[in-house]
Amino acid sequence: MMRQFELVERVRAYDPSANEDALNRAYVFSMKAHGAQKRASGDPYFSHPVEVAGILAQMKLDGASIITGLLHDTVEDTVATLEDIERLFGPEIGRLVDGVTKLSRIELQSDQTKQAENFRKLVLAMSEDIRVLLVKLADRLHNMQTLHYIKDGEKRRRIARETMDIYAPLAERIGMHRMKDELEDLAFAELYPEARQSIKARLAFLREKGGELVPRIIAALDQTLKNGGIANASVSGREKAPYAIWRKMQRKNVGFEQLSDIMAFRVTVDTVEECYHALGILHSAYPVVPGRFKDYISTPKPNNYRSLHTGIIGPERQRIEVQIRTRDMHEVAELGVAAHWTYKQDRPKTEGKQYRWLRELLDILEHASGPEEFLEHTKLEMFQDQVFCFTPKGDLIALPRGATPVDFAYAVHSQIGDTCVGAKINGRLVPLRTQLVNGDQVEIVTSKAQTPSPTWERFVVTGKARARIRRFIRTQQREQYLDLGKTILQKAFRQEGHDFTEKSLESVLKQFDCPTVEDLYLAVGEGVRTGREVVHAIFPQKAEGKAGKVVPLRARKSKSQENAVPIRGLIPGMALHFAGCCHPLPGDRIVGIVTTGKGVTVHTIDCETLESFANAPERWLDVAWKESGDAEHVHVGRINVTIGNEPGSLGSLTTVIGKNGGNISNLKITNRSLDFFEILVDIEVEDLRHLTNIIAALRATPVINSVERARG
Ligand code: MN
């Protein structure tokens, strides 16, 4: 185990300004806190945080990271509290230790790695400070180095698989290739010991046979390119790690001997032209392995990776793979992890940010000058727009930031969303509008009797939740309209002295363009048709017999078309509609809007809907009411009424309208509170003056709070 002064010296060697006193205190604090605890190896537990701190020192990280490494297990595994840490080491260390502790807790919660991608994102999202992630990776590396001491094989394999699926890719993604290789190799050794052994043996055999091949091949390739006229190409190469070789053997389903890229070489040049030039030089200097050439420059991979790949029998008579790219492409390829990530994430708006972040990190790691300041100010910005939560079973659910338990419920299953009545976060009952945070365990309480509430729509953030809630409200509205339509029709039948039967409706379905009786109810309920209109269509003769009282629709239709249309300024033959938003009445100033295939829709001049046609003057039609003939038409005026919530108030409303000769064709409560109802009323009236009279009468009624005409 590294001793106190060794660690301090090591840190001081690359960071003379490190806080020696704090380092010493952290060392002692950790040693005391872990006391007599033992590792599986039999070593004192304290050796683990010291080794982790040592790994971090190798990475030349700042003092705060080293101290965090020393303290990283104290809160989770000893009696020390976060408050102790903050008090003794300050808020920055407190925050870092807290971050690492939280990461360790999610690790304990879920041992499934089938959701590795989500899990990796969760780890990143929770590592708000890059140093949290670096300490976590060092912690994992040391645990992997000492993995063989754990007796329980099941546990060993679980940890190794998690390392393979979660932590090695994370290390790769933040540009730590060495850490990644080491983690992968340790996990590989645990999971597939024989495969690793045989690959290592093969590699050793080849090395023995060929000596130090890689440097010789590099030199030869370099010379060949120079001879061919490319002066400033740089060539690099390496023997691939056993795990990478094994993966390739698996993916391509080939044996070791058939692998051409046990050694990988890379040529970087300045321009795209030089890429193809270099390719030509290599292809004419060495035999080409057929079927290995890939041009990712003219056809980049979906993650923007660009490069030429080829296989040749190289200068040492070995099959080798060569990648040729420009320096710009190389930079992207090194950050390919980021590009790949962004691509999968499909979040173009954050692309720049992630990319820049990784580029900076790589720069720092490569040049290793002054990482402290960089780490100090770098926050992990990735996935800050997402939040990751667990189901009670430990499944991970990824949601957009701001998501609530309702979003969570719908993400798990539509049925759970529809019947959700409450939610527990980490075991505590919370309001459904509560915003979820990373790592929350969410349990949804459901009830068969529950249905989606329109109020949910105000706080859900996922499309799925919103769509389901809206769909439910629409079906519910449909049912309300159905009921309303039926009620209006029954009333209309009664008023005209007929018995209501559904059968009689069937005879006029075609006339009203309704496939079924239900559709007719809907048309009436939604106010597209009036009850009176339908009754008159069914009983034309009889109604005509009662001439003078009501002029039936059929009678009107039998008159000349010109007379039937109460609007001047129309193109003959054009269909006419009155807008459902503003319900224009004779006497209103009006304007027509032409819609291709639909004819002319008449709006009142002050209708708010007209704003959407402001940029299409060619569709505006100057129209006006005809002076006469209006009385023959039934027009529907729409008003919004606010009445007090008290007995009889609705009765007063309908009585006043009736007394003034208005016929209610539709009535809908649009909003209700403890004290007031807001009601939308459609009234059949003769013209504007008729409606104005009714409005005046309503305003004079005590229980009625306010009356306004609907304005779109
Ligand atoms: Mn640890």
Describe what you observe in this structure.
- The protein has 712 residues and is of the alpha+beta class.
- The protein has 5 domains: 4-191, Orthogonal Bundle (Hypothetical protein af1432), CATH 1.10.3210; 210-340, Beta Polymerase, domain 2, CATH 3.30.460; 353-469, Beta-grasp domain (Ubiquitin-like (UB roll), Roll), CATH 3.10.20.30; 472-625, no CATH class; 635-709, ACT domain (Alpha-Beta Plaits, 2-Layer Sandwich).
- The chain is 49% helix and 15% strand.
- It has 29 helices and 20 strands.
- It has a 5-stranded mixed sheet. A 4-stranded mixed sheet has the order 12-14-13-15, with no helix packed on it.
- A hairpin with a 5-residue loop joins β6 and β7.
- Residues 335-383 and 542-564 have low confidence and may be disordered.
- Residues 48, 72-73, 139 line the site of manganese (II) ion.
Within CATH, the superfamily of the largest domain carries the name: Hypothetical protein af1432
Broad structural category: alpha+beta
The total strand number stands at 20
Mean pLDDT: 79
Q: What is the CATH C level class of the largest domain, in words?
A: Mainly Alpha
Ions, cofactors and other bound molecules: manganese (II) ion
Please state the oligomeric state of the protein chains shown: single chain
The largest pleated sheet is described as: 5 strands, mixed
The Rg value, from CA coordinates, equals: 39 Å
For the record, the count of structural domains works out to: 5
* Proportion of helical residues: 40-55%
